[in-house]
Amino acid sequence: MPIHERDTILDVGCGGGRTVAKLAAAAHAGQVYGIDYAAASVEAARRINREAIAAGRVVIEEASVLALPFADRTFDLVTAAETHFWWQDLAGGMRECHRVLTPGGRMIVIAEFYNGGRHARYAERLTKFTAMASLDVDQHRAMFTDAGFADVQIDEDAAKGWICARGTRRLI
Ligand SMILES: C[S@@+](CC[C@H](N)C(=O)[O-])C[C@H]1O[C@@H](n2cnc3c(N)ncnc32)[C@H](O)[C@@H]1O
User: Is pTM beyond 0.85 here?
Assistant: First the structure.
């Protein structure tokens, strides 16, 4: 997925903030926001991105993907790495990500835990004890189309055990 130097990007479920740091390096004339609902993740992400935060290029906020504290049509790109399977309301989270994207803006979801991948058995065991969702390829496609995304593409490497799902907010 191309990242443009002036992009405004949101990383949801940013965890310790390493993805935010990589995105900020790529969009070096833009701005990157990270949100996470866990205070410990926010603290770690702020620590790792402290220079970019001081330079005004990165903002980390404590928030849930289910209620994003951003105006409609704010971001060129929304990223979600290893997080969507934890969202308490997956459809609601996807609709929120779609809402904050500019028309033509893109969203990418990346995960190693999904139904059909190399780690599926482990994921299945985890779902018995947690609220974690284990979606297959078709369910990943549906989660994008149901939220209103167009140009939905799914890439999968079952042997290595990862899935990457992408979609674009329609222009109209
Ligand atoms: C496995 S970590 C992944 C962190 C990071 N994206 C990465 O790839 O290293 C999952 C993160 O998603 C966050 N998370 C889960 N549900 C969330 C929600 N509803 N809203 C915001 N963050 C959430 C967790 O707090 C956790 O930091």
Answer: yes
What is the dotted CATH code of the domain comprising 8-169?
Answer: 3.40.50.150
Instruction: State the CB neighbour count (10 A cutoff) for residue 144.
Output: 23
Whose C-alpha lies nearest to ligand 1, atom 24?
13
pLDDT in tens, 24-38: 999 999 999 999 999
User: 172: how many CB neighbours lie within 10 A of its CB?
Assistant: 3
Instruction: Find the helix or strand (DSSP H, E) in which 165 lies.
Output: strand 162-169
* Ligand 1 and 19: CB distance under 6 A: yes
Tokens (6 digits) for 141:
């496609």
Rounded to the nearest integer, the mean pLDDT of the chain is 95
- pLDDT at residue 131 tops 90: no
Ligand 1 centroid, distance to 67 Cα (angstroms): 14
How do the domains of the chain map onto residue ranges?
A: 8-169
Burial of 164: CB neighbours in 10 Å, binned 0-12, 13-18, 19+:
middle
